[in-house]
Amino acid sequence: MYIGRYQSHTKAITGLEFKRGKDGERLLVSVGEDKRLVEYDLDESSVVKGVQLKGRVALTEQTAVPTTCMWLPQGKGSREDQLVTASDEYKLKLWNAANKTCRRTALAPTFGGPVNRMVPLRTPGSAGAGGDDSDTEYMLYSTASKVIGLLGLPLDGNPHRTMGLVAHPRAISGIASSYDGRFVVSSGGDDMTVNLWTVQTAVIERNVAEGGKGADPFVDLIGGGREGEFYQDLVEYFYYAQLRSQGETVNMADTEMSGQVPVAEIPNLMRALGCYPTEKDIENMCSEVKYSQFTDTGETVDSIDLDAFVRL
């Protein structure tokens, strides 16, 4: 039955996704090249009322252009519905569906252009490979041209947690996975072919194990690594920020270094390192740290350690 229509975007829509929420409600969101994230109120939409919006319209980017979106599979005990958006600046952003606040910004795959499709993928060996979202450990993605790949969850920006391969000679028109996660299907455009791929997630798991633990994979992304000048400056600024948070006139003999700095010091640390984020970027970074454990524990945090700051 035709319900109605709503011009929710001023430019092309790049992502449109349905989901059954954690409380059983029906959810529908869209993102577009106008940088808007829009949610629709399916329960209030009707033939009489037409299509209704729900909540506020959020701006996902300031300069980047959103290229696609995907509902993040919910693990057992998850306290919130979350949405992932990708942009043409090779970033993935995780959003709280209820209040549209940014929960995390992570490095996206950088193979063959920005990600323009994302699909959850259940792993073949999961206990419930036919069960709920909690079985999902990977997502499938494709770019506009040639490349498909896998990305491990949770999204953290670890470059060892992703892979990509050339699947078609030119444009990719669609991707899908089998219900048990054993196979991936990709369709080309002009090449008029459909390819069937076998999924082997053990390769990514081995790469993650070999890439190191904690902040090691992220330190390797810094020029010079742990012995480089930039990393040494980062460590010095981080410990100076601890002194600032206790008061710069404090007696050094009485100072206890907790290994944590308050969230409020993050903007100062970024600027000291030569990065000058916008107020919106600062808001997103502080929100990411504050709610970094909320999905698992339901609690917020007010400080950050060195490894977490390197990842940020």
Task: Write up what this structure looks like.
It is a single chain. The strands form four sheets. The protein has a six-stranded antiparallel beta sheet with strand order 10-11-12-13-14-15, with no helix packed on it. Strands 1, 2, 3, 4 and 5 form a five-stranded antiparallel beta sheet that branches. Helices cover 19% and strands 36% of the residues. Residues 125-134 have low confidence and may be disordered. The protein has seven helices and 17 strands. It has helices at 202-210, 216-219, 229-246, 266-272, 279-290, 294-297, 306-311, and strands at 13-20, 26-32, 36-46, 50-53, 58-59, 66-71, 82-87, 91-96, 102-107, 115-122, 136-143, 145-152, 162-177, 183-188, 194-198, 260-262, 303-305. The chain folds into three domains: 1-104; 109-211, no CATH class; 219-311, EF-hand (Recoverin, domain 1).
Q: What is the molecular shape?
A: globular
Secondary-structure class: alpha+beta
How many strand elements? 17
Number of domains: 3
Q: What characterizes the major β-sheet?
A: 6 strands, antiparallel
Distance between the termini: 47 Å
Poorly predicted regions are 125-134
Radius of gyration: 21 Å
What's the total helix number? 7
Q: Any descriptors?
A:
six-stranded antiparallel sheet, 7 helices, 36% strand, five-stranded antiparallel sheet, Recoverin, domain 1, 3 domains, 17 strands, 312 residues, alpha+beta
